[in-house]
Amino acid sequence: MMNFKTLVAGALASVMMAGSAMADYTFIVPQKPGSGTSVWTSIVAGELEKHLGEKIKIVHIPGANDIPGFNKFHNDLQSDDKTVMVSHGGNGVSYLVDDVDYDYYQYDPIGMMNLTIINGHQKDFDPYTGEILFSAGSGMNPDMMAHILLKGGPGLTMAQGAEIFDSQYKYIKGMSGGERRLSYQRGELNVTRESTAAYNKYYTDAPYSKVWFSQGVFNLETGEIDADPNWPNQSIHEVFEAKWGVAPSGEFWDAFELAGNFRDVMQKALWTRAGNPNTPALVAAFRAMAADPESMAKIYQKTGKYDWIIGNDMKDALDILRGQIQRETLTNLVGFLQHTGKAAIFKEGVIPQ
User: 348: exposed, middle or buried (C-beta count within 10 Å: 0-12, 13-18, 19+)?
Assistant: First the structure.
């Protein structure tokens, strides 16, 4: 019987054989099928094919913290001109605090959606007073930090956040996406999070789940987190002010905001090798899709209406994010993540000079 590694190796072999002469594009997703990124990619690829004029197949390369798939693209797969990397928010946070091979600045940018994450809780659970039971995973550290921020209130320090994590939080590692959803359905977890597409798919009509907050939408002009128009009055700063009477601020908020901005802006982004002759066609197909009311209606119905960032505007967005990195804030973020058991590292190279 083939094991999982054999199946992945076979998929990779197929990718490498799919040369530029073949019609299909291959989109690499660094997660298992059924993940939030997989759901989003399937939705978008179905519409993008209409404007690209070629088929798109999706290959999943999962691994620890969703890093191996992106590293594999960087080291081995990007040489194929028909291969596109679909990175996501966990990769954005890892770019800040993990030892990774990939570097967004080394690729041609294709297109991305300026998305957010939805956090929900069991309807009979009060997340402000009860012990939170939440599944850890790639891209989920900003959500964990948001939970602690909302529990802790105004002016939360890093030390106070660590104390809340130690005394009022269980960050449960090792669950797959399917296991997490089943555990939440059973009530074994009392807080969950999903991409907008996945939350709409799994929980919008679930009688046991209630939206706690949207992480909000990053404003590329102001650098601030704006209210999410798809979830009125439920963005994190609105929920915080409704609970505590003031806007969130302080060193814990700053560390959360840094991680959250990198996660959410970079949540669903497509890249191909620098100088790829297919880049203009891919970018043009994204622009055509974004201008097609029928395609957008189908996508927005499942994801919510969020802005598209296409072509070199993606690197402009990345420049804005990097410009927000302060040494003290990055140091605080790395230190807190290490406290929670993550092998985070301080990366001098991501700080703008």
Answer: exposed
